[in-house]
Design brief:
- The chain has 2 domains: 225 residues, 3-Layer(aba) Sandwich (Rossmann fold), CATH 3.40.50; 154 residues, Toll/interleukin-1 receptor homology (TIR) domain (Rossmann fold, 3-Layer(aba) Sandwich).
- The chain is built from 19 helices and 14 strands.
- With 468 residues, it is of the alpha/beta class.
Length: 468
């Protein structure tokens, strides 16, 4: 038999490339499913027509205010242009003009389809943006409504905003990393000098008193997988960005832990080498194609983790956590809808999650971070007295949390069926729940009782938010 020459065997390079790409995608999907990913939205992701929103702003300011018809590449170049120098050599005044364009043209800076497609995945409640205009914010507000929280870094140690704790990133939030355009004429990045000043502050240690970055957010980011979408920074500046976000983790190449991904439509080869050495993947593709592929892979990963059902996992930092027996699902759903109609953020277990270990800790965290805990008490509890039920664990966790916060806050608010005997020895409702004044509903006509209860919860939440 003739010996086969190994050089004559055909191999498919396409197969190798596909395998490597699948590995990259699998890593990203795994990190997302673990809720370990924080997106960073850059300019290339925020497009209005054929331009990015930043390019559009610069073009409008150059033409409308200064009559400059030729392309201007940056605000620094605009400031040095003779026509601009004649009328506006002051950077603060130029910032005011930029804000004026945004403020007077809200229809231009509305939500975009690409951002809506990405952010509606809902795996990403916490989003960072390097953009100064409100397009990302407007898109998130379409999805989250008044529940969206907006935070800013303004390069001032006394005014920089931070998250409350490491669990706070579960709350729908947009963080303006380089400030947001405003009518004060400062506190946001416009010129190259602004970008250097802000970048310097993000590079400083968390405990620095001089323009320090937000300590709690910085700690969280250093341990998260960052998905940077649409970066348009120059090579050198983008390296500084990653170093500021990941700290020592980016220089410790011996630790083979994925730090994140840069998804863009173009990247410099030397930058890609740097990213790879820091365990950051570079994914060069059309951003709309990337978002579509990401959604498809997430939906295909596991039917139980589809866009709809995955968000049934316990959410942190909600206004109300509903604890109930499966027999009372109908009442729980009615209460959920009525609270949501009031703009109250609510989590309740829509599926029978049980008490598997991965949900055990999450449910406990959700209870610890909610503003009010609502146990639904009904005759079902008496009927199920001899059975194991998760709601009894939820009661205990809520009681433990109540012991650690001020008694001035109304934290436990029971909702009880009128016929239920709260003092029944068989039902065994803990005294720490019985001592709270319960609201009541009728089993055959629950609407009036639920409406009154929802109104009282809404009022208590508003008083608490206002510090009363």
């Amino acid at each position: 038999m003739k010996e086969i020459d190994i050089n004559d065997i055909n191999v498919g390079q396409d197969a190798l490339e596909k395998a490597l790409q699948n590995e990259v995608w699998d890593t990203l999907v795994r990190q997302i499913v673990k809720r370990n990913v924080i997106p960073v939205i850059g300019n290339e992701m925020v497009r209005i027509g054929s331009m990015t929103s930043s390019q559009l702003l610069l073009s409008v300011v150059s033409r409308k205010y200064f009559g400059i018809q030729e392309p201007v590449n940056s605000y620094t170049a605009l400031l040095n242009h003779p026509k601009c120098k004649e009328k506006c050599s002051n950077l603060k005044a130029l910032r005011n003009l930029v804000y004026d364009v945004i403020n007077n043209n809200p229809q231009v800076f509305r939500a975009t389809d690409l951002l809506r497609e990405f952010l509606s995945i809902k795996y990403f409640p916490f989003v960072i943006t390097t953009v100064i205009d409100p397009v990302v914010e407007n898109t998130m507000r379409e999805i989250h409504g008044d529940n969206l929280r907006v935070l800013h870094f303004v390069n001032d140690p006394h005014r920089n905003q931070d998250i409350e704790n490491s669990l706070d990133i579960s709350r729908p939030t947009l963080y303006y990393m380089f400030g947001k355009a405003n009518d004060a004429g400062d506190d946001f990045v416009l010129s190259d000098m602004d970008l250097l000043r802000f970048s310097r502050s993000w590079l400083l240690p968390k405990d620095s008193s001089d323009y320090s970055k937000p300590a709690r957010l910085s700690t969280v980011l250093s341990n998260k997988y960052l998905l940077v979408l649409g970066n348009d920074f120059q090579d050198w500046l983008f390296r500084f960005f990653w170093f500021a976000m990941k700290d020592e983790k980016i220089v410790n190449a011996a630790v083979n832990i994925p730090n994140g991904m840069d998804a863009s439509e173009h990247s410099d080869e030397r930058l890609i080498e740097f990213l790879n050495s820091a365990h950051i993947t570079s994914q060069i593709s059309s951003l709309p194609d990337f978002v579509s592929e990401l959604r498809r892979r997430l939906e295909d990963a596991d039917p139980k983790t589809s866009m709809k059902s995955w968000f049934d996992r316990p959410e942190m930092n909600v206004d109300v956590f509903i604890s109930y027996s499966r027999q009372d699902r109908g009442i729980a759903q009615m209460l959920y809808r009525k609270l949501c109609d009031k703009g109250v953020t609510v989590w309740y277990d829509k599926e029978n999650l049980g008490l598997a270990m991965d949900f055990n800790a999450e449910i406990r965290k959700a209870i610890r971070t909610c503003r009010m805990f609502v146990p639904i008490l009904s005759d079902s509890i008496t009927a199920q007295a001899g059975e194991e039920h998760v709601y009894r664990m939820e009661w205990r966790w809520a009681i433990e949390h109540k012991m650690q916060i001020s008694s001035a806050f109304n934290y436990i608010a029971p909702l009880s069926e009128e016929s239920f005997d709260m003092y029944s020895r068989v039902a065994d409702v803990p005294e720490d729940i019985r001592v709270h004044n319960a609201a009541f509903y009728k089993k055959d006509d629950p609407e009036p009782g639920l409406d009154a209860f929802v109104d009282s919860i809404y009022e208590l939440l508003n008083r608490r938010k206002n510090g009363k």
